[in-house]
Design brief:
The protein has about 350 residues and is of the alpha/beta class. About 40% of the residues lie in helices and about 25% in strands. The protein has twelve helices and 13 strands. The protein has a seven-stranded mixed sheet with strand order 4-3-2-5-6-13-12, with helices on both faces. Strands 1-11-8-7 form a four-stranded mixed sheet. α4 packs antiparallel against α11, α5 packs parallel to α6 (about 120-125) and α8 packs parallel to α9 (about 200-215). The N and C termini lie far apart (about 50 Å). Bound molecules: N,N,N-trimethyl-histidine (AVJ). N,N,N-trimethyl-histidine binds near residues 77, 193 and 244.
Amino acid sequence: MSKALVHPRVDAVGEATARRDGATFLAEVEPRGASAAETDARREFAADVARDLALRPKRLQPKYLYDALGSRLFEAICELPWYRITRAERRLLELHAGAMTDSIADLTGVIELGCGSGEKLALLAGGMRRRARPLRVHLVDISPAALDLSARTLATVPHVSVVTHRAAYEVGLRQAATSPLRHGATLVLFLGSNIGNFHPAEADAFFRTVRRALRRGDGLLVGADLVKPEVDLVRAYDDPLGVTAAFDLNLLVRINRELGGTFDLADFTHEARWNAAESRVEMHLHCGRSQQVAIAAAGISVAFEAGETIWTESSYKYVPDAIAARGAAAGFACGEQWIDADAGFAVTLFRVD
Ligand code: AVJ
């Protein structure tokens, strides 16, 4: 296949010009007083967008869905009657917090990866039956807003002290697990079916990374959404109120604002597809007519054909045994599983024996 077909159709001269403009644009849109970290983050966003829109199919990474508005829209999704993950998991934690934490003897530390609002952790801490010592909670998230909210929620829970790590999972996990203050056993939480965003090889790597960071007696609690009828899966990711569509399309709004993109929102529509062979729901942004879209800060101009899509997220759905098998493959002993059969959701406890 010729290279022109697998890359954005920009000729060499045009590309060089666009690059120079990109650098200029990046400097211009950078708010005055932006920190070095903010500038780096924007540069990385631009580089990721340029790389992923050159792939076939075109892609964008789901982590970029969560700017300030995207995070609010995600919170709204969690309240939708068709998106049952959050409520099902909350119910399981409310019912079984005692049993979930009892089986980790001398539990003194919790590390939550992707902390969200802190509400679930508060439920778990509040439901612990034997609390010999105060509980030290490490929150790991790349979003400062999520860390703030979580820390505030947990401030009201007695005997809990909070340490925040603004970092990617792996880095934050290492910081938290090697904390000199560490004594007793640690429980790592990976909730909300965030595991669903990982492709199979990434999920395996994730389990191995957590396993390496832990010691005998520690545990890992994973919440995962289960396979269910296709109509329910599709409605959960393409709701009748259009909130998920707004969440998905906001990624283009964000590119227009932060990177000087020229996406015309009227030409793109949100799509949710159940890919049974891969056991995942895919979100796509479908382009209705052929056009060229420029993204100044990324130094690119991208050709779209009518009917082409940008693949923005995968949410893998599990059967209970498949979750247990993933952990076992990484060297964990599978403890118990708590299942909400109605919503189709499982919380699984892994232990290091
Ligand atoms: C936060 C990744 C678990 O995949 O269900 C919700 C994100 N995307 N609706 C999921 C999401 C569309 C959510 N996770």
